[in-house]
Design a protein that fits this description.
0% strand; 7 helices
Length: 147
């Protein structure tokens, strides 16, 4: 290892694909876990709909299962690395709405988690899933496709 490598830690770049995969899978699992109680419990879904109503969301009884489904789909897409760029965009939009409608009432710290999910969504939308993904497996033969 050269002194330059020691300063810049450039050898760590060899782990970029693994780090990207860990980011995708970790965030995806977090999103799936976060809505699983609403999927498996009608009572939790009613509580979530009431929560949305409390913050002025229109049609909370329709929006609650829709949002839960979207977050579940985003999470699964991230875990699998499937349609990752679309999932990243949806993630960013979903959590911008969360910040605007709910989290901003709690200030900067209260918005931090949603802000991180916006930024991670934007990163995955622009970076793509990396080579260890279903996107790469399904579309690598297409000329010019960049995961």
């Amino acid at each position: 290892m050269t002194p330059r490598d020691l300063i810049t830690l450039s050898p760590l770049a060899r782990g970029a694909d693994a780090a990207l995969t860990a980011l995708r899978v970790g965030i995806g699992a977090f999103l799936v876990f976060g809505v699983w109680d609403n999927i498996t419990s009608a009572e939790h879904m009613r509580e979530f709909a009431a929560f949305l109503g409390q913050f002025g969301f229109p049609w909370p009884n329709v929006l609650a299962p829709f949002d839960v489904g979207v977050q579940f789909a985003i999470g699964m897409a991230f875990v699998l690395g499937l349609m990752t760029r679309w999932a990243g965009l949806l993630c960013a939009v979903n959590f911008v709405v969360a910040i605007v409608m709910v989290d901003h009432h709690q200030g900067w710290r209260g918005s931090f988690g949603s802000m991180c999910l916006v930024l991670i969504g934007l990163y995955l939308a622009t970076r793509g899933p990396g080579p260890w993904s279903l996107d790469a497996l399904l579309f690598r033969r297409r000329r010019g496709f960049r995961t």
